[in-house]
Specification:
This protein is mainly alpha-helical. The chain is built from 13 helices and no strands.
Length: about 290
């Protein structure tokens, strides 16, 4: 039961981040959005840590042991976001979403290759195939290249998915049992400077913090999407098999599409609903195999 509560919480909150980001980006440029989000998410987690009288300081920077792994994980996390947003600039939003969510497949394959206890059987493979087809259906009407070549942007987004998968396996292997609150808070702090530099380099204007769109989008994404939701995600990665966690990640874009339809009146087609059914079937196959094992 704990697994299902955590995974549905994380995927729903991350799915809701899609329409929240669209709302926020009405009033702020992308990299400004990201550094603001980093400040809010780190501040929210630090407040919880102070309230609970938890250790706040990170490990001292060092190239030995747990301290090294802590900072490598933080760098990988932020490298993924920088790579992803660079790729989005050279492809369409639908294609970027599809290619980013090749991550569950990459995560499961990488974990099965590196970790001896991460077995993947026939039912799980069938489930991932069904879920992947569901993703194609889900974004089928958004995959147009809009009249231009998108191969470069698509490739960069796939690289971002690879980095995300590597970072997830690295965290699972090297930071098991480490305080999820400190990982989240300091990872987000580390994100602020590079995104601020990129926003300044691109000449993005200073955000209007009185704009309701900015407050809603950045506030939700910072406080919930990359703040509080990251903590159960870290628990899931360290406590459960990668294949079981990975396949449920396909629910994130499903929730994104559904909440976008509800909150932003975005179209919801029969192709999208068919994709959601395929993804649900894939999750069932992988989860039923996990129960057998």
């Amino acid at each position: 039961m704990r697994f299902f509560v955590l995974i549905f919480t994380v995927t729903f909150l991350w799915g809701l981040s899609f329409p929240a980001a669209k709302i926020g980006l009405r009033g702020v440029e992308p990299f400004t959005f990201l550094w603001l989000r980093g400040i809010i998410s780190a501040a929210s987690v630090f407040l919880i840590m102070f309230a609970r009288k938890m250790p706040v300081l990170p490990p001292r920077p060092s190239w030995r042991g747990e301290s090294r792994d802590f900072w490598i994980n933080a760098c990988l996390h932020n490298l993924m976001f920088i790579t992803y947003y660079h790729g989005v600039d050279h492809t369409t939003a639908g294609r970027a979403s599809l290619f980013l969510y090749s991550q569950p497949l990459l995560l499961t394959a990488l974990a099965a290759w590196i970790l001896p206890h991460e077995r993947v059987g026939v039912r799980a493979v069938s489930g991932f195939i069904a879920a992947s087809l569901g993703m194609v259906f889900l974004f089928g009407d958004r995959l147009s290249s809009a009249g231009g070549s998108t191969w470069y942007g698509d490739g960069v987004v796939v690289v971002a998915a690879v980095i995300w998968a590597v970072q997830s396996v690295f965290l699972k292997m090297r930071l098991r049992g480490f305080d999820a609150f400190r990982i989240t808070a300091w990872t987000q702090i580390l994100a602020v400077l590079p995104f601020f530099v990129m926003a300044s380099f691109l000449g993005e204007p200073w955000p209007d913090l009185t704009d309701a769109n900015v407050l809603t989008g950045v506030g939700y994404s910072g406080l919930i999407g990359t703040g509080l939701a990251m903590i159960p995600w870290l628990w899931l990665l360290t406590d459960y098999p990668a294949s079981r966690v990975g396949v449920f990640m396909f629910l994130t874009p499903v929730f994104g599409v559904l909440t976008g339809a509800l909150l932003l009146a975005e179209p919801l087609t029969s192709l999208m609903l068919g994709g959601a059914v395929l993804i649900s079937s894939g999750i069932y196959f992988v989860n039923s195999e996990s129960k057998k094992n």
